Amino acid sequence: MAVLALFLLWKIRGKQSRFDRLPPGPAPNLLLGNLLQFNIKEAYKYYLELSEKYGSVATIWLANTPVVIISGYQALKETMIGLGEEFSGRAIYPLLMKSTYGYGVLSTSGHRWKEMRKFSLATLKNFGMGRRSIEERVKEEAENLVEMFKKCEGSAFSPADMLLNAVSNVICSIVFGQRFEFEDPQFKSLLRTVNTYFAILSSPLGQIYNIFPRLVSLFPGKHHELFKDLEEAREYCKCEAQARMNSLDPSSPQDFIEAFVLKIKEEKDNPKTEYNFDNLISVIWNLFSAGTETTSSTVRHALLLMMKHPDVQERVQREIDEVVGQDRWPSTEDRQNLPYTEAVIHEVQRHMDIAPIAVPHKMMCDTEYNGYVIPKDVMVFPLLSSVLKDPKLWKNPNCFDPENFLDADGRFQKNYAFVVFGMGKRACLGEALVRIELFIFFTSLLQHFTFKAMVPPVELDTTPTNCSFGRMPRTYECYAISRK
Ligand code: HEM
C-alpha cells in the first residue's frame, strides 16, 4: 500500500514538474480543469479574454490536458515563424484522427508530415494550383454555377449545396482527375460527409468528443453516423487509389492520386518510405475535405454579407460593370483593376474568422518562450482571432468594413495581420487555389445576379452557427435576381 502511495505521489510530482514552467492561466479544477469556466459554444471568446488578462501566452486545462494559447500578432510571429520547427507539430485531436488515423498531411507531425506536405504542395502546383490552368477549371465551375442559379430565378432557394458542389469540383478535378455532376449519388454522399464532419467538428459535441473521446463514444449521437460515413468516404478513396494501381501510365500521371501511386511504385523497395496506401487515402481526404468546406462556406458567407450590406453589393457590381462589363467572364487578370472587390473578399474572410484557433498545433520538443517552458507534445492553440480582431491593427475590427483593405486613394492595401490561413510552416497549403476560387466565384456571381434576402437587411443574422473549432457560417434562403 505504502509503495503504491509513493508511486502515485512520484507520478503526480513528475507530472507537476513537467508542467511547472507553463505560462500562467486560471486555476484549474482537479478533474475538469477550466472546462466549467467558459461557454463551450464560444470557447474562442474565453481565450480572447484570457489573452487580455494573462498576456500573449496563457495556459488553460481542458480536463487534465494543458493547452497553451498564443495570441497577438507579435507572439504568433515569434512562435509560429521564429520558433517554427518547435511549434510545427499537430495536436492529436480525436476527431481529426477519426478521419485519418494519424496519416496524411493535416493531422501528422515530424518526418511524415514534412514528406506529405512537400509532396502535396509540389503536386498541387504541377496540376495547376495557383496557375492559369486551374483558373480555367474554376471558370467552368463558375459558369455552371451561374446556370444553376439562373434556374432558381423567381423563387427563394438555398445556395449552399450548389456552392459546395462547384467548389468541390475544382479540388476533385485535381485530386480525382474528374468533376462530378450535381446529382451523382457518390459525390452527394462525399459532400454530405464533409459537411457533417465540419458541422460536428465545430459544435459543442465535437469539442466534448475531443476532450473525452472514449466517454462520448459510449453515448448514442450524430457522431456515430459520422464515423460510419467517414469510413465509407475512406473506402471510396481507397477504391480510387486501387483502380489507378493497375491503370497508371507512369509517363504521364493524370491526377494527384496517380502521381502519388507512381511514387508508391518508385519507393517500393525503401522500407522507410512514407509513400503508402494509408498516407495516400488520408491525404486524399485532407485535400478533399479542407478544399471543399472552407472555400464554399466563405462564398456562402460573402453572399450573406452582400444581402446585409446592399450598398457594398452595389459598389462591387458597379466596379465589375466598369472593368469587366457583361460580355465576358471575369478573370484573375482583372483583379488589379478591381480594388474594391478585392477589399471586399479579404474583408469577408477577416470578418468571418473561420478558423479562430487555426488547427491545433503541438510542441515538437520542450521549448522556452518568454521565460516559460512549454513541454514536448503540449497542445497549442494559435489564436488567429486575436490578430484578425485586434483594434490596434484594424480600423473597425468587429464590423464588416471593406475600408480595412483600402488606402486613402481607394487602392487595395494588403495587411500583414490578415492571418486567416495561419502562419509559418503549417499555414494552409491551399491558399493559392483559394485566392483564385474566391475571386472567380464571387465576381462571376455578382456580375450576373443581385442577391436579396427574404427579410430586410437589418433583420439578417450574419453571426456563425457554430463557433468552436471553426466558426461555421449560416445557411439561408435567398433570391438571385438576374442583372441581364
Ligand atoms: C477559405 C479557404 C481556406 C481557409 C480559410 C483555410 C485555412 C486554413 C488554416 C487556418 C489552416 C491551419 C493552419 C495551422 O495549422 O496553423 C489550414 C491548413 C490546411 N489547409 Fe486550408 N484553408 C482554406 C482552404 C483550403 C484548400 C482549398 C485546401 C486544399 C487545397 C486546403 C488545405 C489545407 C491543408 C492540407 C492544411 C494542413 C496543412 C498542414 O498541416 O501542414 N485549405 N487551412
UniProtKB/TrEMBL annotation:
CDD domains: CYP2 (cd11026). Belongs to the cytochrome P450 family. Residues 1-17 form the signal peptide. It holds the Pfam family p450. This is Cytochrome P450 2M1. The keyword Heme applies. It comes from the Eukaryota. It comes from Labeo rohita. Keywords: Heme, Iron, Metal-binding, Monooxygenase, Oxidoreductase, Signal. Coiled coil: none annotated. InterPro entries: Cyt_P450 (IPR001128), Cyt_P450_CS (IPR017972), Cyt_P450_E_grp-I (IPR002401), Cyt_P450_sf (IPR036396), Cytochrome_P450_fam2 (IPR050182). Its cofactor is heme.
